[in-house]
Amino acid sequence: MQVKPFTIDIPQSELDDLQARLERTRWPDELPVVEWDYGVPLGYVNRLVNYWRDGYDWRQWESKINAYPQFTTEIDGQNIHFLHVRSPEPDALPLILTHGWPGTFMEYFRAIDLLTNPAAHGDDAADAFHVVIPSIPSFAFSGPTHKKGWNQYRVARVWIELMHGLGYERYGAAGNDMGSNISPQIGRFDPDHVVGVHVTQIYSFPSGDPAEMEQLSPEDMKAMERLQWFLTYKSAYNTLQSQQPQTLAYALVDSPAGLLAWNGQLFGDGVDDDFILTNVSIYWFTRTSASAARFYYEEAHAEHATEPTTTPIGVAIFGDDFRSFRLFSERDHKNLVHWSEYEQGGHYASHQVPELLVGDVRKFFRGLR
């Protein structure tokens, strides 16, 4: 595996073009006092566009990202971009972290130093990790995919080859969102080398058995109602990207305000503006909004595994995220050995509450090293 150093260096002409497009944004009308009922509100997008145009500093974030070692390689005919940050602790456990949509590798940016150098933060050096954070093929600086079939299973196999190519024969995996689907598949395909898998969601749901539903706690029932609301009123992105991603692509690649609104529907108010705009800027500059949307199509048309994995799985649930259901998770994953729930944080816990997320990752892997 040939690995090449990589540095982000967006041409100034790209920044100038973005600025010009933001200045020429054509705004839609909006009904009064509807807030989020009809979709992403005009005021939300207008505020972020104004900041993107007049306050946000891409060059600052480009420099911050470039402070960490980045590389590219080619696996399965696809360019793969990844951050590779080795711990100063020689016995650190290698860990590959996988993001989701509409995020990027930036989901884990605030967790890197905590994971790689716990002693510098007053914690136990024995909990250190060598960290690999790749961009999913079709996302960010991995660039668009050019063939069909890039689903969670294919990505997992590429991650295995990446870790072995970096010389890591024994390692862990962790993920959020799509990464919570991809990471367990790494354990499925490489059980002799993957010591454990830590995720922030398990997508296990009711089987249809009424007796099963009767076992749910009042908190679980409230979470089920919340999930049903989301599926009924806010899952159009999933339907469209699973069915017609190319139709959507023309708007996302041509309009930065449109891309911001589309991706912004799942960021909401739980994260800071710079986090939103750095993620959206990466999609914009790499022109991967279309290919990232295709991942949903590939997942919808994949032949999904039904047999359980055997690698130990740990789960951390955060307060403002969609609740994973322990009853259904333990039904589908007999290898579920760790379960934590926190009141703080949300869907982007590694950014919102990195100390909590990293602490849980350390705790899970402590007995598996």
What's the quick description here?
This protein has 369 residues and is of the alpha/beta class.
Shape: globular
Reported for the largest beta sheet, the result is:
9 strands, mixed
Number of helices: 16
Main sheet strand line-up: 1-2-3-5-4-6-7-8-9
CATH topology: Rossmann fold
H/E element order = EHHHEEEHEHEHEHHHHHHHEHEHH
CATH superfamily: Alpha/Beta hydrolase fold, catalytic domain
CATH class designation? Alpha Beta
Could you explain the architecture of this structure?
- The structure is a single chain.
- The protein is α/β, with parallel strands linked by helices and 369 residues long.
- It has one domain: 3-Layer(aba) Sandwich (Rossmann fold).
- Helix content is 44%, strand content 14%.
- The chain has 16 helices and nine strands.
- The protein has helices spanning 12-23, 42-54, 58-66, 112-116, 152-165, 178-189, 210-213, 218-233, 236-243, 245-254, 256-264, 273-286, 289-300, 326-332, 349-352, 354-366, and strands spanning 4-5, 70-75, 78-85, 93-98, 129-134, 171-175, 194-199, 313-318, 336-342.
- Strands 1-2-3-5-4-6-7-8-9 form a nine-stranded mixed sheet, sandwiched between helices.
- β2 (70-75) and β3 form a beta hairpin.
- α2 crosses α11 (256-264).
- It is globular.
- The relative contact order is 0.15.
- The mean pLDDT is 96.
